[in-house]
Amino acid sequence: MFINWEWLRYLSIFTLYILKGVVCVCAFVLPCIFILYTTFSYEKIKDLKESFVSVQKSSATIFPFLAVNQKPILQFRKRPHSGAYEYVLSYELTDAQMIQAEQYLNKIPTSADIDESQVQCIEPTRSTRWLFPRISRHYVGRMYSDDNSFLIYGSDKHLHKIEQVCSNRKFRVAIIERQNDQRDQTELALSQSHQIFMVNFKHYNSD
Fold first, then answer.
1. What is the CA radius of gyration of the chain?
2. Tens digit of pLDDT for each residue in 44-99?
3. 166: closest CA among 105, 96, 76?
4. What would the 3-class secondary structure string for the chain be?
């Protein structure tokens, strides 16, 4: 049987050039993808961090019973059907802080139609998707969408505790209205059984 060795030689040379081209393209494209992803991740984390730092500062300014530099045990962001982001901070209070928080809520005028159903709580997580360092998305239903999930910034160590608080649904609720503020409404929810204070800043400028 006659074998065309010349044809095989040209084919091998052609294949070698193709492989070299693929390697060169990968050597250029992969670093570019990595740089773009790193830049995008940095900007995403930076924007989210700035938003949460902003609402943490607001909490420290508004609520005198929170200790200086007291950090929330869980902080998450939801996007309800209204399209506006809602940043929710959950603080664990001491016995002394609980008394002060109850006194503070007693001073806020509340209407009869405000109840615990208005609290922006979370349902148990069905699945989790890692997005960026310190950022994860938690899905609460079978649909993988923003409306059916929430974004956690930072540690999710106390996630189960807040899920339990939310499942209880027994809160003292109040609403603070502020004018000329980017977040002009703040919902407060105090869980007396778990000593958790939740602050929901409504952010009407969707970003």
1. 26
2. 778 888 888 888 888 888 899 998 889 999 999 987 665 678 899 999 999 999 99
3. 76
4. CCCCHHHHHHHHHHHHHHHHHHHHHHHHHHHHHHHHHHHHHHHHHHHHHHHHHHHHHHHHHHCCCCCCCCCCCEEEEECCCCCCEEEEEEEECCHHHHHHHHHHHHCCCCCCCCCHHHCCCCCCCCEEEEEECCEEEEECCCCCCHHHEEEEECCCCCHHHHHHHHHHCCCEEEEEECCCCCCCEEEEEEECCCCEEEEEEEECCCC
Tokens of 93: 């209070």
3-state secondary structure 133-187: CCEEEEECCCCCCHHHEEEEECCCCCHHHHHHHHHHCCCEEEEEECCCCCCCEEE
How many angstroms separate the CA atoms of 140 and 127, rounded?
7
pLDDT in tens, 119-173: 778 889 989 888 877 889 999 877 777 778 899 998 999 999 999 998 887 888 8
- Nearest Cα neighbor of 87 from 182, 191, 193 is 182
Q: Which amino acid is at 97?
A: Q
